[in-house]
Amino acid sequence: MAFRAWFRCIAGCPGEHPLDRPLYRCPTCHDLLEVAHDLDALRDRSPAAWMRLFDDRYKRTTWPYGSAVWGKKEWVAPHVREENVVSMDEGGTNMFWAERFGRQIGLEDLWVKMCGNEHTGSFKDLGMTVLVSTVRQMIADGRNVRAVACASTGDTSASLAAYGAAAGIPTIVILPRGKVSTAQLLQPLANGALVLSVDTDFDGCMRLVQRLSEDEGVYLANSMNSLRVEGQKTVAIEVAQQFDWAVPDVVIIPGGNLGNVSALGAGFDMMHALGLITRRPRIVVAQAAKANPLYLAYRNNWTFEPVTAEPTLASAIQIGNPVSVRKAIATLTRFNGIVEQATEEELANAAARADRTGMFNCPHTGVALAVLIKLAERQEIAPTERVVVISTANGLKFTDFKLRYHESTLGIASRHVNRPVEIPNDFDAVRRAIDAPPVA
Q1: Which domains, ranges and CATH numbers included, belong to the chain?
Q2: What is the DSSP letter of 310?
Q3: 104, 103, 69: which is closest to 89 by C-alpha?
Q4: Separation CA 150–CA 153 (nearest Å)
Q5: Is 194 exposed, middle or buried (0-12, 13-18, 19+ CB in 10 A)?
Q6: Sheet of strand 95-97, all strands in order from the earlier edge strand to the far edge
Q7: Residue 394 and residue 362: Cα distance in Å, rounded?
Q8: Closest by alpha carbon to 266, among 333, 338, 331, 336?
Q9: H/E segment holding residue 186
Q10: Residue 36 confidence (pLDDT)
Q11: Which pLDDT tens digit goes with each residue over 63-97?
């Protein structure tokens, strides 16, 4: 059976547009695009057969199906020929049973999907493998692509640079100066990208890269390019797969530019349409209070207005005018969604509290965990519900945040500080330090 996918307008304008062309908005109304699949062709295989196929491929060595993205190729990118796939074994990240942390906050069935355990340390790899593979195929077919470019608060640039380097495709990343961690800045530098550090915020970088992509030969890699969403939607599919094709009750995800929100919904929608699941979870979007346009829209009957995002410890979601907001609102409307916010103190303390139970959280996961705590306290999440928090990046990218938290230099009240105990080279001093009562 031949499977097929194409771009279509999210506003419903007629027309199908090929995936291997540089197109990011509807040519009629200029709204965003989404990827549509020939569901009738996909229904030629039964739900049980799809589950069996995906399980048989999962983390195996047959190229490229060991990747948890390319193992679902028919649902994601049927247009890409296998010789053009650029893969780093994406997906397959662990589902951490947060049993101890869950007990502390009154939840019996809490899990954290560790999407930061990817090649470049964030969930962005799931979408970038699809986008860069498509670009590689475009080049192989003789199309003029001189470089791939993105605006980024850190993780997108790291992912694009790595996949571009693996494919031999030049990459350009535009970063807001002083607003990404040292590790996030070093990643694209190490992978040979042209890094432009601009004296603006993410929204300013996004305006620049959109203008740049109007030039022939510069391909846009931000999440307004719906190819990224196709890879990222496999998070939802993999969550169900890791629970033996059962659906959790609630999924909580940090939200910045909001492409990940519509991606999550797209994955659950596709499984539902093809009969692999019979219900959808409730989706919760967690925003930093200093960059909260979706939260404000939620509180105002989904009337959206951009904001000027303030500096936040959750730097990757410091976005005041998210490109994918319309897609996100449509998703949350279908999924009985909630949007909640977290202050700087709440997100930092939630990350540190969860770290004490075995995690090592990025600040953006801290936002999601802080929102989880609020919803559990308000009993908007029941104690027996199965909850999955999407951890979007690896905490090792944010060691400055961690160090400053435990040094109490973040400008907040750090409630879970743990500092090294400095003692002389003396056994009795060691014993006294060990026998001393723990600091609350």
Answers
A1: 95-121+229-406 (3.40.50.1100)
A2: P
A3: 69
A4: 10
A5: middle
A6: 95-97, 109-114, 386-391, 250-254, 282-288, 338-342
A7: 6
A8: 331
A9: helix 182-190
A10: 97
A11: 999 999 999 999 999 999 999 999 999 999 999 99
